[in-house]
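step 4 of 6: structure.
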Amino acid sequence: MKAKKAKEKSPNFTPIVNVEVNKEDFVHAGEGSSQIKANLLKLGYSPKAIRQVAVASYEAELNIVIHSLGGWLECGVRPGLIRIIARDKGPGIADVEKAMQKGFSTAPPHIQQMGFGAGMGLPNMKSCCDDFSIESKAGSPTVITMLIKDEG
Amino acid sequence: MKSHSVALEKGRCVGCTACIKSCPTQAIRVKKRMAVITEARCIDCGECIRVCPKYAKIANTMDLEAIREYRYPVALVSPALYGQFPLGTDSSLVLSGLIEMGFKRVVDVAQGADYLENMINGYVEDHPDIRPLISAGCPAVSRLIAVRFPELAENVIPIFSPAEIMAKLTREKMIKEGYPSKEVGIFYLAPCTAEVTAARNPLGMDERIIDGSISISDVFWPLFNIVKGLKVPIVNSHFSAKGLRWSCIGGEAKMLKGNYSTLAVDGLGPLIEVLEALSMGRLQGIDYIEGRACTCGCVGGVLNVENSYVAREIVRQTSRLLKTEVDMEEGLLNWQDYQWTHNLQYQAALLLDEKPEVAMLKLEAVNDILRKLPGMDCGACGAPNCRALAEDIVQDQADQMDCVFVFRDRVTSLAEDMVKLSRKLPLSISEDV
């Protein structure tokens, strides 16, 4: 359903990956990003773009695992441009501006002990892509949309 | 393209599917009861040779006779060779045995590893902005990166392998001593197919510096019989414990002098996992990755005769008797003088099409076909898994009916249609109203 909606909104992106990401599933975190990477190699995107996408999509995937109730990772492409959308089922971010600051984290201690949740996720994502947008508020789902240009 | 060193002995291949599953780049298909390798994808790791139950996959190496084409044949001895001999065998006797076999000079690659130590330390220090750096010590790993992880190509250290270092030094030295370069033939006694290919078609360089490669497994038995009868060495080996242990996993990482965090990963499966993690930015804080395609490192190379774990133990035990540092003839060498002429290049062998628009359409078609395939990844069609078959279909290299399940469903539905038709009678004789 969700994937269909996204497709309708921007018809020029061909969807290539749409995977469900489960809450606190650290074991499988990264599989969606890995699938995205494998597909981009088949499509001929440049190593530089693939590197950016791999990092950005993994951070997004991990954010869903750590902070949300679960969600979806999607990748759509068109020549020269890659779009990653990470959407979750909530619980939403109360202060988006604060969440964008380096080092700010709301990850619980047990997750930080595992080496995750250092407060670099969102800033890292932003630095890896050419366009970054985040929609969220407390009590509602979060949607992160990232665009990565491939200049070859 | 005859640059690869993995080949097929046609009479032996029975068209089973053992190799197609083991290939890390999905380069093999079984067609007409025979394995076929897609050259552009092959990274010469030798996994298919290792798993082939019929010994049909072979290494394209030279035989010992080839050394007679040169007046001054030189043997470049992989340290893995010492792991093949029983514990306690004097390495100088092994080298002397090679002289008896016809080589005019023997050179230890372990010595090249001793020279490498200063080079990698220099490179790591001079490039603090690239982390982690990835060792180019295993050419199969470098080629895997070129095909499957091009985004990591800039992390690969673009310097000579120990064998290449020694080949260059030896040729320069012999020319200085007055030997005509044309009459000097440098032969690598290689532990694996990746090294054989790297000698023939070096990574990062346009010119080859090694003239040919001979498989350790081809040299071992004749050499073993000679060494058995030798008492006094006529040449001496000269390398440190570290240089010898470079052939075992972890040996190179241990050469780093600073307080660096390193990963030493052996075996293609675990290595691919590490490279995936690295590509996603998951390996923060790691400075250096020593990846080796074979378990235990070069001692586990597919052209060796001894079991990789046993060979590693023999090398370890032997190295305990050696000094940790030895005086090197050339002193310390700098990486700048042993640099590749160009960095590791992306090999776009997995591409569905050169044109992005067409590739996109093909990918959509692959996904459509994939939904109709059973997802069992049985390999009976000759492709390693359903996705690979779907790609082959889109590339006109295969047909949906190659899938035994799709084929069976089609036969079933045709048979049902036949039964239905056979019961249908013309109106003239039909009793139905």
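step 5 of 6: annotate
 - DSSP finds six helices and five strands in chain A.
 - Helices of chain A lie at 2-9, 31-43, 47-67, 96-99, 109-113, 121-128.
step 6 of 6: archive
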